[in-house]
Amino acid sequence: xxxxxxxxxxxxxxxxxxxxxxxxxxxxxxxxxxxxxxxxxxxxxxxxxxxxxxxxxxxxxxxxxxxxxxxxxxxxxxxxxxxxxxxxxxxxxxxxxxxxxxxxxxxxxxxxxxxxxxxxxxxxxxxxxxxxxxxxxxxxxxxxxxxxxxxxxxxxxxxxxxxxxxxxxxxxxxxxxxxxxxxxxxxxxxxxxxxxxxxxxxxxxxxxxxxxxxxxxxxxxxxxxxxxxxxxxxxxxxxxxxxxxxxxxxxxxxxxxxxxxxxxxxxxxxxxxxxxxxxxxxxxxxxxxxxxxxxxxxxxxxxxxxxxxxxxxxxxxxxxxxxxxxxxxxxxxxxxxxx
Length: 339
What we know:
Blueprint: E1 11-17, E2 25-31, E3 35-40, E4 46-51, E5 56-57, E6 65-68, E7 76-79, H1 82-98, H2 102-136, H3 139-157, H4 164-178, E8 183-187, E9 194-197, E10 201-205, H5 206-211, H6 215-231, H7 234-242, H8 244-253, H9 264-270, H10 278-288, H11 293-299, H12 307-311, H13 327-334
Parallel strand pairs: 8-10
Antiparallel strand pairs: 1-2, 1-7, 2-3, 3-4, 5-6, 6-7, 9-10
Helix pairs in contact: 2-7, 2-8, 3-9, 4-13, 6-10, 6-11
């Protein structure tokens, strides 16, 4: 049996010399279990044994192949048999494959680390940068960006309605529901109900205001939009639309170009309202002193999908301490778009 299981016996002739000055002799080369046996061609007497792992192929042409028992050895063997040369090469490949390669493991680990870093840069970093930028901006800057978004949105909705008495009523509605921060706008078209924008800006539909019997419907839309903006920050949505370069510029310089907001109006109108838990909505209505059932009925005329908001209305059995708007302000708000 030889060092390779596919060979029961492998022999060939070759030319061997014992040193640089020695005369080449014809020999029989036998492929053994761990050695090459070099024997006289005529008598079969063994001349030398070479360790297979140590056999070194000398530089030169592909055929005939020249070998030495080691890199610094004086002996030399010349073989013209392709099968023998292939067998010796295969032994060396097997030995090399089984040898420990600490550098290879290091390379694999380094490659895996680099791949992880690249994956983080591609998939994690943009989102993290957007979230970090949105969280680090002061409210005044958020409101400035929200007004930029409103400008882009008006391409689709028209300019916000601005009848003087209606604006006064809208300001009182805002103060009643949201306090000093943010703004509410009513637009003539393009919006079904309400759209939150960065900086506490909420855009209401003219149709919603003009067709509702009570200001509590509009108030419910404002409260739901504000609560939804706390769940899904519209500034994050806007910065994702603006892109990584614009976001990085905003973070480093504090400025965002109007062109970076271009097209966000369509995004804002397509953005679905987040699904808000009934309890969170009810708590918000209770804190604001607003009945939840008028808003619920406006959302679902059948009442089936909003039953908790109807049955658990915090003011179902008692009136709020003060109305959302008095009758005069409500009529003025309904006329904010000038009829």
